[in-house]
Amino acid sequence: MRRPEAEAALKHEFVEELGQASRLSSVLTVPRYLQDAYWWAYVHPNAVRVFERQWLVNAILWGNFARLRDAALDEMGSPVTGRSLQVACVYGDLTLQLADRMVAGATLDIADVLPVQLSNLSRKLAGRRGVSLLHRDSTALGFSDGSYDQVLLFFLLHEQPEAVRRQTLAEAVRVTRRGGRIVVVDYHRPHWLHPLYYLFRPVLARLEPYALDLWRRDIGAWLPDDMPVAIRSARTFFGGLYQQLTLIRE
Ligand SMILES: C[S@@+](CC[C@H](N)C(=O)[O-])C[C@H]1O[C@@H](n2cnc3c(N)ncnc32)[C@H](O)[C@@H]1O
Q1: pTM of the model
Q2: In what order do the strands lie in the sheet with 242-249?
Q3: 183 CB within 6 A, ligand 1
Q4: Residue to mutate, 27, 48, 56, 90, ligand 1, most ligand atoms under 8 Å from C-beta
């Protein structure tokens, strides 16, 4: 159990790191879709205790966590330089490995709408340098245009209803500098001959109500019209159930 003084230190740390964001954080509310569809995974006070297990995250991804994590990391750079943004916390060691790949002077901001997730990630990061945790909503990040060299969205888009997903992508593109990268890893429509095709569909439909959108349409469908991007690379994994898409802001 976290000691009260540690809790206080953590709050203090957020305020220190947030600066202006500490003011914004007081007006942020938990998005409706997150409360309704994902309370059990992220919002409930016991969620972190249950899900912060890499073997469990790996099981949820049918044994593909390391492969997908490494695909995302490799697209973020090797080593990672400049200013990076990860939109939304992730269970497991993705962010730790991202931070460990950073050269001296590189920075990593992680924005999430749930303080409980930021606290958990702060604990995992154990004081790594150059990393800041920010209480923000992905649909209104509040950063200046072109603030980042690369932005990562790891399994966030499938959790959001279409209108929210569209806003998240618009914000990700907006805060990426021209020539910078937006790296997305998420669900994708598997090949119909995939032996588990008819198992994936009902499982996703039951547990992840917006995920099947990514079976129906390409991510390009939700990109903003007024901020052009080019596809740098696109791959699928595990018979097409997952995808990695890297976009360049033009
Ligand atoms: C990245 S997604 C899922 C990642 C993956 N399933 C995992 O955790 O291993 C989960 C995170 O997204 C965050 N999130 C969801 N909607 C958000 C929003 N509108 N703004 C910021 N963070 C959001 C949740 O608070 C949660 O921490």
Answers
A1: 0.91
A2: 131-135, 107-112, 83-87, 148-154, 176-187, 242-249, 229-237
A3: no
A4: 90
Gap between the Cα atoms of 151 and 249, Å rounded? 11
Percent of the chain with pLDDT over 70: 90
Distance 114 CA to ligand 1 centre (A): 8
Please state the atom number of ligand 1 nearest to the C-alpha of residue 43.
Answer: 25
The pLDDT assigned to 25 comes to 57
Q: At 3, is the pLDDT very low, low, confident or very high (cuts 50, 70, 90)?
A: very low
> Looking at the 3D structure of the chain, how many domains does it have?
1
- Report DSSP state, residue 239: G
Q: Report the Cα–Cα distance between both ends of the chain, in Å, rounded.
A: 47
Going from the Cα of 156 to the center of ligand 1, the distance in angstroms, rounded, reads 5
Q: Tell whether ligand 1 has an atom less than 6 A from the beta carbon of residue 61.
A: no
Taking the C-alpha atoms of residue 112 and residue 210, their distance in angstroms, rounded to an integer, is 19
Residue 224 is part of which domain span?
A: 4-249
Alpha helix stretches (DSSP H) within 78-196: 94-100, 115-125, 162-174
CATH number at residue 236: 3.40.50.150
